[in-house]
Amino acid sequence: MPKNALYAQSGGVTSVINASACGLIEAARENKIKVFAGHNGVTGVLSEDLIDTSKESNQDIAALHYTPSGAFGSCRYKLKDIEKNNNECKRLIEVFAAHNIGYFFYNGGGDSQDTIYKISCFSQQAGYPLICIGIPKTIDNDLPFTDCCPGFGSAAKYVATSICEASFDILSMAATSTKVFILEVMGRHTGWLAAAGGLASKNHSNVNGAPQIILFPEIAFNQELFLQRVELCIKKYGFCSIVVSEGVRNEEGKFLSDCDLKDAFGHTQLGGAGTIVAQMIRNNLKYKCQLAIANYLQRSARHIASKVDIEQSYAVGKAALELALKGKNNIMTTIVRESDKPYRWSVGSAPLEQVANMERKMPRSYITEDGFHITEECLNYLTPLIQGEDFPAFENGLPKYVRLRNNSVPKKLGSLIN
After folding, report:
1. What interhelical angle do 152-173 and 307-325 show, nearest 10?
2. CATH no. of 4-137+301-357+389-399
3. What CATH number was assigned to the domain covering residues 152-300?
4. What is the pTM assigned to this prediction?
5. 260-277 pLDDT per residue, tens
């Protein structure tokens, strides 16, 4: 019998992860390969909760190209170490064997690549023939060996657009109202998304350089220097826009959100990095300050997704299937940058062993010497990734997205016993 494929999504979803699913499933259909999907990532595989994608129409699969979120459900789950407890891996092999799975594709970030690497290693130990290929995804843009991570370009476009538009707003109100606007973005350990906010100031000089300040996890936060810079911006421009990465740390390496800052009444100030920074400004500079936390919006905003990002997301999914059919194994598909101007890229691959649990931080050369903004080198890296639009269809004024049937595959095994 021809082998079936199993695809699953993992970690925080993005506005374009479904484009990778679309690329893989359409390529599989062209090659007469049946694709099952794990419901809610690897947890669905462990519980034998599988979805039969062959029950979906070609039209609905194609519509995944335009639909945000994870169409098959995602999870945050890390497999136990094989040496300490291999029951999970044994169970996965049982599920693969029961459903004639010969190809496994896991779509996610660093922890997800670790998961599929563990499965690949165990399948080899168990003598079960399984081709394992990771498909990259993360708005944090922190996977190694790939020029960029699918999902990042669209989130970057959202962040840059949001800080640009908000800066126009605050500029018009600053004379008599709010003088400081703060946008907190994701990035607990790396500042790629915060850096993307700098595209607004580089490309829109008529916003008086906003955002004038960017706070990165890679740069230790110095409160005195920061407040001096805020004061300087307000004197020069009349207002100050700031992008804060959630992972900003102080000079002792402690997250700002863990610093027990006191408010004007001596009460402990709780909240994220943006909240802490806003309170610093209110307490010390007495300026009216507004805070927005991008949170899920930055990773779900398909209506303003980057066309380049969508194309890359589709391509890494399609290539994963094609590489698997060529016998390639234990790899993650990657984006290879061939040139900046004009921007050209292709799909490559990297060994899972070298990708799993690795984290790529921003190069210091991408951050200005004072630590508050991005350099031209960073601008040249980021700019191609946010280019173009590929709008979804609209219906009654709102984006029209697809909701799959997600028909279950009949179970053949009993429940997982730990």
Report:
1. 170
2. 3.40.50.450
3. 3.40.50.460
4. 0.95
5. 555 544 544 445 899 999
